Q: What sequence folds into this?
């Protein structure tokens, strides 16, 4: 598996293979949309999930879903596209290795370029407060900021709000694993500082396409600028991620978040805005 290949090289490889999409959550469905955009729907054989997934849909947009151990030998010789968040990829790689499946690739890092094409600019310094201003119409930033504060013992609600909000668009187990990874990010940042090699992806309107966790931690530690790749705004962050992933107030109120919790998140956004006015 080559994580350093270009998006163009990946698309060429995908076009020549029969594909199995490993993962039926938000990332898996987003990858399906990207394949359709590039006229590769016909290359998909099926979705697959691990044996420890308790339930799943029988099909997604006409494509069957199967447990990994149910796949016959012919399917095991296809290209497995691991379509999950970073917090789950190692577990799935280990599972594939145990099944002696060698041809696989983690597709999450390529998704945005599959939708948006090449960035307009790479490795540019962007003032962090310009990015934060674009985040204040939703509560994704506030949820993450409260989790950072709980990591440092400043509240007792951040982790709970983080897991519940992320569980709006992925399995709760995945949300809990993402919290663990987020805490690791905070810990590493505290110990080693800002890793500028891991670029934030934004569009030309400063909307975050990928990297809101890093933006939040950077703000907490007082960074003034972050390194970004800048894409065209022909597709908005909302179109790419959806209201649930962006954590709009409407999405939270339609779930189990009450008025008081939404008010707490609103005040955090106000506080973050006040720090740069």
A:
């Amino acid at each position: 598996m080559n994580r350093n290949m270009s998006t163009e090289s990946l698309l060429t490889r995908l076009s020549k293979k029969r594909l199995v999409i490993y993962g039926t959550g938000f990332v898996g469905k987003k990858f399906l949309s990207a394949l359709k955009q590039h006229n590769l729907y016909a290359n998909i054989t099926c979705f697959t999930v691990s044996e420890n997934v308790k339930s799943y849909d029988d099909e997604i947009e006409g494509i069957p879903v199967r447990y990994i151990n149910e796949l016959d030998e012919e399917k095991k010789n296809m290209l497995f596209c691991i379509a999950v968040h970073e917090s789950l990829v190692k577990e799935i790689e280990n599972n594939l290795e145990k099944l002696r499946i060698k041809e696989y690739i983690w597709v999450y890092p390529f998704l945005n370029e599959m939708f948006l094409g090449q960035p307009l600019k790479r490795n540019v310094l962007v003032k962090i407060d310009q990015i934060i201003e674009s985040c204040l119409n939703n509560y994704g930033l506030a949820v993450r900021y409260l989790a950072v504060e709980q990591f440092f013992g400043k509240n007792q609600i951040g982790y709970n709000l983080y897991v519940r909000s992320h569980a709006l668009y992925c399995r709760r187990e995945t949300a809990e694993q993402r919290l663990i990874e987020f805490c690791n990010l905070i810990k590493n940042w505290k110990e080693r500082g800002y890793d500028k090699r891991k670029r934030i992806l934004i569009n030309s309107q400063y909307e975050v396409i990928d990297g809101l966790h890093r933006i939040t931690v950077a703000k907490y530690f007082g960074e003034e600028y972050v390194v970004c790749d800048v894409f065209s705004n022909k597709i908005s962050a909302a179109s790419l991620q959806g209201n649930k992933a962006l954590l709009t107030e409407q999405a939270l109120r339609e779930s189990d978040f009450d008025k008081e919790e939404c008010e707490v998140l609103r005040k955090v956004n106000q506080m973050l805005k006040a720090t740069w006015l």
